[in-house]
Amino acid sequence: MADKLNREALFITLYQQVFPAVCRYIHKRGGVLDDAKDVFQDSVIIYYEKLVAGALAHHNEKAYLMGIAKHLWFKKFNSKQEQVTDNMLSHLINEEANEPSAAPLLHYLETAGRKCMDLLKAFYYDQLPVENVARLFGYSGTHSTSVQKYKCLEKVRNTVKQKSLSNEDFIE
Amino acid sequence: MRTSLNELAAIEQQLLQAKQPDEQLLFEAKMILNSELRENVTAQQQAYALIKQYGRKCLKAELENVYQQLLHQPQHQTFMQRIKQIFKRT
């Protein structure tokens, strides 16, 4: 499922089926197209993470996405306190909103270690099985793929440790 | 795998997989006694958080790419007109 082409097909479907309803909702509450696009995209990210983790009990993806979108809209653009009915959803959205920014470090890793980051993303974020990762990245087998995963993770971990030692942001 | 990679795998098991309470206690005891292990665990947790941030960044870019396709490709023209119409209503 988490293969790039499959993702693109899924996203086109979600845009076609759910984005109009999100637009109507946000327009009624004074938002513009860009607001609707941002809220919709953030909602799909939250939905995707639940999907790849196998944590989605819902079968109505439209209703689920609308629920996330409504909550994100309230959080971003409303000052009123809103009752949260779904605690798990609230936790996910809170995590999304309160994520600490490590922009300079991430930028460094993206530029200096792009292939590693892509490999690690395939394992840990897209949660692809090791066989799929081996095929995607052209490794000879699952053992060599796992070894490469740990080598990449070691590189990222060492970068994090170096940064905390020097206590400086990575600059270009 | 070399020793350092085995250590990464062991820390990963502790951080990402559900453990029995006694295994967890043993690992926490090791961390108290070994400052390098403590440092590695903290750094590895941060590494996983960075991978997640990277994943989200890539996903957002893919979503934006799809949006641009919907905006500009002729086969999606009717759909985007419908969307723009929503925001023209008073």
The greatest inter-chain interface is formed by: A-B, 43 and 40 residues
Q: What kind of sheet is the major sheet of chain A?
A: none
Q: How many runs of DSSP E, i.e. beta strands of chain B?
A: 0
Q: Write down how many β-strands of chain A occur, each being a DSSP E stretch of 2 or more residues.
A: 0
Summarize the structure in short.
Chain A has helices at 4-28, 33-52, 61-77, 87-97, 103-112, 114-125, 130-137, 142-166. With 172 residues, chain A is mostly helical. Chain A is globular and about 50 Å long.
Topology (SSEs and partners):
The complex is a heterodimer of chains A (172) and B (90).
Chain A: H1 4-28, H2 33-52, H3 61-77, H4 87-97, H5 103-112, H6 114-125, H7 130-137, H8 142-166
Helix pairs in contact in A: 1-2, 1-3, 2-3, 6-8, 7-8
Chain B: H1 3-16, H2 21-33, H3 35-72, H4 77-88
Helix pairs in contact in B: 1-3, 2-3
Question: Can you describe this structure?
Answer:
- The complex is a heterodimer of chains A (172) and B (90).
- Chain A has 8 helices and no strands.
- Chain A has helices at 4-28, 33-52, 61-77, 87-97, 103-112, 114-125, 130-137, 142-166.
- In chain A, helix 2 packs across helix 3 (61-77).
- The longest helix of chain A has 25 residues, at 4-28.
- The model of chain A has no long low-confidence stretch (mean pLDDT 84).
- By secondary structure, chain B is mainly alpha-helical.
- Chain B has 4 helices and no strands.
- Chain B has helices spanning 3-16, 21-33, 35-72, 77-88.
- The interface between A and B is large, with 43 and 40 residues.
Task: Supply database-style keywords.
heterodimer, A: 172 residues, mainly alpha, 74% helix, globular, B: 90 residues, 4 helices, 86% helix, elongated
